[in-house]
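Query form — protein Letm1 RBD domain-containing protein

QUESTION: What is the three-dimensional structure of this chain?
INPUT:
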Amino acid sequence: MTSTATSLVAGSVAAVTATATAARGRAAVRVFTLLPIQSKTRTKKAFYSTQPAEAADPRYDCSINAPLSTLPAHLDLPPPRKPGESVFSYYFKIGKGYLSFYKTGLKNAAWVNPRLAGPVMSRWRDDRGYAGIVQNKWITRSDLQLLKRNQHDFRRIPLFAVLFTICGEFTPFVVALFSNIVPITCRIPSQIQSDRRWRENQIKASFEAFLPSTSINRPVEGLDKLTWKEKVHCSTVVGRHSGLWPSRILPLPFGFVLHKRLNRYEVYIATDDLLIAKGGGVMKLSPPELEIACVDRGIKVLDKSEQQLRADLQRWLTDSKKGVTIWERWLALPTS
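ANSWER: The structure tokens for Letm1 RBD domain-containing protein are given below.
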């Protein structure tokens, strides 16, 4: 990305931030709050993971990718059971693999990530959230994603820890019913795929049976110009409200809360766009980070190659530079 492109994206972030600040005050543009655990010393950020050494590709060891400790750890399961192998021994190995996976995930969520996030959060609070980021430009995408995921996971640790204590190695059979309470670091691959498929099915259903045809592909200048159904649809695209709520039948309660969430998310996406450009562009994103960036923007990821995802994300960033609002993109009928 050129410096001109970065400046254009930075300008859009500043504009969004200024609008949100004027309308709702300084607190409206601060997504993250002070975490319960902070480090009092500023240490060099490290990348933690239980993944095999070969999984940490040096090509992606840069400031655009979040620490590996914010991602699920490596799930080490035995190969398919061989003829004559003890059934008890085989399933014992599977249970042991899941037990190790969840223990590592909880350690990363409860100890490693809060320690890494402490110094970053201190600067975040001192610079007054997104407004300070845009003005001082000190943060990297790695820092932003660390803060975002750490806050997400830290809130879920108590309830998930109770569930894990009760279920132990049988936790994978239970988390499918309570996916939203599971920290990101403790989500198994099949759960991640299931959640993404659920989201994409919800988006498809929203286009087909909820969003009025007059709203599809219509130009929208900003959040305040959206109708109620359009706001619910955009929220569905990026998961800003529970998919279990029957929004097609009953209106979502506390509409102002949804409006505020969408406003915050708009600022977050604009900031993340800026930091991807600042960090070297789409090609510097590791495959897991690439998928997360696409999911965050409501881009379909299932059944797509890495090359297709990079092209889709690059198209998103190009549209951002052109001034196309995120609302127009989320109201546009997907072509793939």
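ADDITIONAL NOTE: Confidence is low (pLDDT under 50) at residues 1-10, 12-54.
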